[in-house]
Every structure is written in C-alpha cells, then in structure tokens.
Design brief:
Strand content: under 5%
Helix content: over 70%
Shape: elongated
Structural class: mainly alpha
Number of helices: 7
Length: about 190
C-alpha cells in the first residue's frame, strides 16, 4: 500500500488569508468608493480598467510562482543577483503565493470591478436613454469578456516566462526590503 498521507491544512495561513482578504477588500473598496464618489464617468472607466489589469498582473505572478524552476536562482543568488533570494522564497512558497495572488487578490479585483461597474451604471442611468437591464447586461458582459480574455492570454506567458516573471517580482521584493524595510518573508532558521 502506498504511503497515503492526508494533506495538511495550513490553519495559520488560512486565518492570515482571511484577515488579509478582509483588510485589503475594505481598504481598496473604501479608496475606490471615495475616488468614484467625486469622479466623472471617464475616471470611473479608467479605474475599472486599472482594477481589471491589476487582477491580471496578480494572476500572472501566481501562475509563474507555481511554474518557475528554482535551480537557476541558486546560481544567481550565489552571484549576488538582486532579487534572486526573494525569487527562491517565492518559488518555495508557491502555494501561498498562488493563493494570495490568484485567489485573494484576483477575487478582490473581480469584486471591485463589479462594484465599480455598478457605480458606472448609476452614473450612466441618468445620461443614456437605454433600458437599465440591457445596459447592465451589456457592460457586465464586456467586463467579464475582457477579464477572461486577458487572463486566457496571459496563462501561456506566465508559464513560459515564469522564471523571468519571478525574478522581476523578486527584484521588486528586494527593493521593498532594502529601501523601504518591508520584508514579506521572514527568515526561518533550519530546523533539524
């Protein structure tokens, strides 16, 4: 009989993910609400596109972390290439990185795009002489098709260019840790 271990649920990460989701959604939702309350229609559409694009970028990072190969980053790290050590940490924590990028940030961006779309529909309802249900269905379909189309297009890029993407993210994290003193991964001592 094969060794069949039950997969462990990382309770600590699950709890952390819930807290991060709540705080991030509340923060981004509040910021977008404030921006949109005074913004015109053009600004609302620009913010909608930014949120869709942000969701796609996080999706790319999540997929790249799961697909990247750790080996080349070891020689880069020994040659002191900026971001290589952070890239290794991203790859070693691919499950958490993927969950954060694809699930947490992806879902938050989807919810925000729906909220922004609702605000756009309210702004349009007084200006356009079109049935509200038709306008809602049309704009929702356009947003969904745009989001799905962009995510479908980026999947191959994320998988085929995963090492380059993860090195770029690693360099960004290196910059955060070096210049802003923000450390996303804590250094753990090896347990024997």
């Amino acid at each position: 009989m094969a060794n069949s271990k039950k997969p462990k649920v990382n309770i600590k990460w699950t709890f952390t993910a819930v807290i991060i989701s709540f705080v991030t959604a509340m923060g981004l939702g509040s910021v977008s609400e404030v921006l949109l309350s005074e913004a015109g229609l053009l600004m609302a559409f620009i913010l909608l596109l930014v949120v869709i694009f942000l969701g796609v970028v996080f999706d790319i990072i999540g997929i790249a972390a799961a697909a990247a190969d750790e080996k080349p980053f070891h020689s880069m790290a020994s040659n002191k290439v900026a971001g290589a050590r952070h890239a290794i940490k991203l790859i070693r924590n691919a499950g958490v990185v993927s969950n954060f990028c694809n699930d947490i940030m992806g879902d938050i961006c989807n919810i925000l795009s729906g909220t922004i779309l609702g605000i756009i529909l309210l702004k349009l309802s007084g200006k356009v002489n079109v049935d509200r249900a038709i306008m809602s269905a049309l704009l929702s379909s356009i947003v969904a098709a745009t989001t799905i189309g962009l995510k479908a297009a980026e999947k191959n890029i994320a998988v085929n260019q995963s090492n380059d993407i993860i090195l770029l993210v690693g360099k960004f994290l290196y910059w955060l840790s070096r210049y802003l003193k923000i450390e996303l991964f804590k250094n753990k001592k090896n347990k024997k």
